[in-house]
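User: I'm putting together notes for a lab meeting next week and I want to include a structural view of one of the chains we've been expressing. I don't have a solved structure, so I'd like a prediction I can at least talk through. The sequence is below, exactly as it appears in our construct file.
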Amino acid sequence: MKIVLIRHIKSDWSAENPDFDRPIREDRKADALKIAQALKAKGIAPSLLITSPAIRTLQTTKLFAKAFAYAPSQIEYVDRLYECTCEELWRVIQLPRPTSKTLFVVCHNPAITDFINQYTNARIDNVPTCGCAVLELKAGRFTMEGFYYPKQFC
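Assistant: Thanks for the context. Below is the predicted structure for the 154-residue chain, given as structure tokens.
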């Protein structure tokens, strides 16, 4: 099983919205397309797409769904992904999903960075906005197969 952990697109701090309601920056929407293209080039596409319910993650998830022609009605919203810890993220990933070969999870830091550092042999200081890590789960252990972020493709 592949797990693709995706941090949301950079959020817009210009409006004084509460954290949960902060949208993405309009000028950064192309970041999702850059990452989607990198994943497609590796033959990686979601069989299930799950997201935190925060506005910026919902917007990011919908851009990925569009890039992969994934039906928005099939997106799974998981409340506990908002402000989760890496342990909570692991519990969400472990939920039974019999048809999921490639699970895309769109959520937040520090959970993503902490998850990579705790559950894989990789060490990352910080997953940047719209960064993603491709993890392979075999026999209960993760290996990181790829790490992509928008500035790689400038």
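A couple of points you could mention at the meeting. The mean pLDDT is 94. The CA atoms of residues 34 and 89 lie 25 Å apart.

User: Perfect, that's what I needed.
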